[in-house]
Amino acid sequence: MVNQPSAAIMHTAITRLLGIERPLLCPGMSYIATPELVAAVGNAGGLGILATGPLTPDQTRAAIRRIRELTDKPFGVGCTLMMPGAADNARVAQEEQAPVINYSLGKGDWIAEAAHRYGGKVLATVVTEKHAVSAEKCGADALLVTGHEAAAHGGSVTSLVLVPAIRRASSLPIVAAGGFAGGEGLIAALALGADAVAMGTRLAMTRESPVHANTKDMVLQRGVADTLYSKNFDGLWCRMMDTPAARRASRKPLGLMPAAFRASAVARRMGMPVLKVAIGGMLSQPQALRQLALFGAATESIRLAIQDGDHEKGVQLIGQAQGLIDDVPTVAELFARVMDEAQACRSRLAQL
Ligand SMILES: Cc1cc2nc3c(=O)[nH]c(=O)nc-3n(C[C@H](O)[C@H](O)[C@H](O)COP(=O)(O)O)c2cc1C
Question: What is the structure's pLDDT at 78?
Fold first, then answer.
């Protein structure tokens, strides 16, 4: 038997930067990238990023401490800066000295400055070359480049084109996201100039992922074309599973009065002053108010699909890669398989 070199470990600029053994990341996914999944990814040699979107600062602190109980490996904390409370969660991540902070949808210079003071690394999520250049100037250590295929907020350009475009625009290490689900995808991403992949849809379909069993069954039955991409669900271009509920939720943009009504419900839930948010917001910042309302309403729909398996009211964020998935392995099994596939792919290419 020919001895193949071990596929268990693969080092790239990203693995060296983040101190991990495999160029495989789990991106922040609300209600899914929980301490258990994040730790499972770390223990399997990758880097998991805790989703803090639906968490208060106290819950974020508790979640970071829980990850540290479950693993001694590096992990990340994700902050979607446009969401209410995200800056406070980023400050908690700094206080707890999270090894990696991943920010998206905002300016992260202050995050990079604070993280670098204790030796933390910063990963900026970008969807355009312009954002990539700006993130580099703001002190990011690496970029998470999210293509059109991705679940949730992928850009308008596919990974196949976006990754090499950003490779030309920036010298930072790149984690490619959007459409990656196996070893062939990993090798393709490396060939395009990336240094690792983040797999959201694929890792949502693992045993450690808390996605409801009904929803996992639905994903197994869907093909690559069974998604919707709309700006009407949460106010940003967003990819979700094609279901009647998702079609209803993305049929038309939210008007100002329903936005004020929903924003007050969100404000109540988050302990913010209701009148100031609803009436003050309607008069002074109607766009910001609408965005807050959309995020708030979307967050509840996302929770219903993930935690309750409810697809009457719930909406499932999912990427085109759902059509490449036909099982629900453990994270360790998945990563071992991805590395084997990558090794087989390299051997095949070497024979060309
Ligand atoms: C089920 C699910 C939930 C997600 N939730 C969020 C979220 O709450 N916020 C966010 O910015 N991205 C979210 N994402 C997107 C991921 O962070 C990542 O960009 C995406 O999954 C990468 O593309 P892929 O799904 O093709 O792997 C989610 C992805 C999935 C699959």
Answer: 97
Query: Which pLDDT score is estimated for 333?
Result: 97
13-213+324-350 — its CATH code?
3.20.20.70
In the chain, what are the domain boundaries? 13-213+324-350, 223-307
Nearest CA to ligand 1 atom 14: 29
For 300-325, give the DSSP string: HHHHHHHHS--TTT---B--GGGGG-
Ligand 1 centroid, distance to 349 Cα (angstroms): 30
Minimum CA distance residue for ligand 1 atom 5: 29
- Per-residue pLDDT tens over the stretch 83-134: 778 999 999 999 999 999 999 989 999 999 999 999 999 999 999 999 999 9
Query: Is the CB of residue 78 below 6 angstroms from any atom belonging to ligand 1?
Result: no
